[in-house]
Write a structure and sequence with these properties.
single chain, 92 residues, 79% helix
């Protein structure tokens, strides 16, 4: 798991916006990392699928396909979180 969140004393709209910027940056980083992981899993699936065709036996583990699905779901959730943060910022 990641580090514990750091809570700051927030006293005004400017402080809230500053915190939202930090949250947006963290969500952006999370999205980029998950996207890289998803791309690498796709490469692995393609490679294993190709090798499986050459050998006449499926080589792609079910867990690898599940991991890809979970990353897709995670990317959607991160994107939704980023949208929510942007919406909150726009309302301030």
């Amino acid at each position: 798991m990641g580090a514990e969140p750091v809570w700051h004393d927030v006293s005004g709209v400017g402080d809230i916006r500053a915190e939202l910027v930090g949250v947006a940056e963290q969500l952006g980083g999370a999205y980029r990392h998950a996207g890289v992981a998803r791309a690498r899993i796709a490469e692995a699936v393609a490679l294993l699928a190709g090798l499986g065709e050459q050998h006449g036996a499926p080589l792609v583990p079910v867990e690898l396909r599940r991991a890809a699905e979970e990353l897709d779901r995670g990317l959607g959730l991160i994107s939704g979180g980023a949208t929510a943060v942007a919406d909150i910022d726009a309302r301030l």
